[in-house]
Amino acid sequence: MIITSLLDTDLYKFTMMQVVLHQFPAAQVEYKYKCRTPGIDLHPYVDEIREEIDALCELRFTQEELDYLGGLRFIKSDFVDFLRLFHLPRRCISVSKSQSPGELDITVQGPWLHTILFEIPVLAIVNEVYFRNNHLVPAYAEGRQRLMSKVELVRGDPALRDFHIADYGTRRRFSKAWHEEVIITLKDQMRENFSGTSNVYFAMKHGLTPLGTMAHEYLQACQGLGPRLRDSQIYGFEVWAREYRGDLGIALSDVYGMSAFLRDFDMYFCKLFDGARHDSGDPFTWGERLLEHYKQNRVDPRTKILVFSDGLTFPLAISLAKHFAGRCITAFGIGTNLTNDLSYQPLQVVMKMVKCNGQPVAKVSDTPEKTMCEDKAYLAYLRQVFEIPPEQVGETADD
């Protein structure tokens, strides 16, 4: 089976799940899968994917895994006690062939607390099933050569002494085995320049730092959980701060776009949070705007962390590191370019929350093609409430 541990997922799933347990235990949600890569035929593999999901839903946390989670400074004992009884409910996920050629309909519906861990392993399953059927003899030699060429860009450059990259590549990896080889290589070859991984299982297995705070779904859910829509982003940050008391302080900036983020990210949040994460739009422009925002709020940007994680390559990450050197702390999360760079076209697969407590939710980032919402009327309303320009929404919202 592809997934053999419930820890084989990103850390932010657990940090968000703990907030859900303590703050929103009754919330009901819906997620929808989408493949943005055209011309991909997944219909032949639907039964294989279902079998992998069946096996995923049989998994339980082991005592070793629970002990590891309980040893993380921000994980609380009652959450570990809950996970001791946890399993993913098979009744909450459906997988079928879409009427669109080659596409799949994958839907998750149920309690947020019990379905939040589906996304990452399901996407990893879709990826690995597709690639193992289409590339029976993987180009590992090519992958190793490409990986080492990236390492060589960093190794020995004194200007990159403080350059730190992390693996963020679980959901779109070529395979679990290749993912692990990449992590071992980075640990051995990059040493202090490799800061860790978002994958909790590999962090535990290889003695690495697990990395992550919040994802888009958290702030999206707050659209249906907060007191009013306009304050949903502020509400999300306040609830997060109430849960973690200053820990895990990297705020996600692109659920409504950078302009809306900066309007809500006032002096209080500037001082409270350690920094922010970039995940759409031009990263240089984003960084410059954030640094100026800190200055306007009388915060020294040199004390703040800018995390870049949008479609990064090593050359782009290095350019960003040199551009912002000495003006702030930078960190880089690289996904597909690390874990699925073997000369094949990667799949751009996503699974996004589309409803919370029966109402639509949406993400409107600074990259229009990343917009995902089932209700165009709600999207128009969201745009009006957050003063989002029409060109930022694009034409990709689902009916």
UniProtKB/TrEMBL annotation:
The keyword Phosphoprotein applies. Residues 7-127 form the Nicotinate phosphoribosyltransferase N-terminal domain. Pathway: Cofactor biosynthesis; NAD(+) biosynthesis; nicotinate D-ribonucleotide from nicotinate: step 1/1. Transiently phosphorylated on a His residue during the reaction cycle. Phosphorylation strongly increases the affinity for substrates and increases the rate of nicotinate D-ribonucleotide production. Dephosphorylation regenerates the low-affinity form of the enzyme, leading to product release. Keywords: Glycosyltransferase, Ligase, Phosphoprotein, Pyridine nucleotide biosynthesis, Transferase. It catalyses: 5-phospho-alpha-D-ribose 1-diphosphate + nicotinate + ATP + H2O = nicotinate beta-D-ribonucleotide + ADP + phosphate + diphosphate. InterPro entries: N/Namide_PRibTrfase (IPR041525), NAPRTase_N (IPR040727), Nic_PRibTrfase (IPR006406), Nic_PRibTrfase-Fam (IPR007229), Nicotinate_pribotase-like_C (IPR036068). Pfam families: NAPRTase (PF04095), NAPRTase_N (PF17767). It comes from the Bacteria. GO terms for cellular component: cytosol. GO terms for biological process: NAD+ biosynthetic process via the salvage pathway. GO terms for molecular function: glycosyltransferase activity; nicotinate phosphoribosyltransferase activity. Gene3D superfamilies: nicotinate phosphoribosyltransferase (3.20.140.10). The modification Phosphohistidine is found at H216. Catalyzes the synthesis of beta-nicotinate D-ribonucleotide from nicotinate and 5-phospho-D-ribose 1-phosphate at the expense of ATP. This is Nicotinate phosphoribosyltransferase. It comes from Pigmentiphaga kullae.
